[in-house]
Amino acid sequence: MLxxxxxxxxxxxxxxxxxxxxxxxxxxxxxxxxxxxxxxYSVVVGHGAxxxxxxxxxxYSLIHIVKITPANGHPRRIRRK
Length: 81
Prior knowledge:
Layout: H1 2-11, E1 18-22, E2 27-30, E3 36-38, E4 42-47, E5 56-61, E6 65-70
Antiparallel strand pairs: 1-2, 1-6, 3-4, 4-5
């Protein structure tokens, strides 16, 4: 089920960057769909990318992803005067 959610986000056009929250408190931003690859049990993410080419990749097990949020942070609060 989580894999399907990630796949939908990667395939969405226009693409909207999102953040994976990993057990232990780590966060992984996916800013370009070309730099993430989904497998049955994990997602492989390219890091340190310049001009669409990753410096290195890390693999994150789907069972360790606890939450997915927009990478742009929380919605802005409207301040009232």
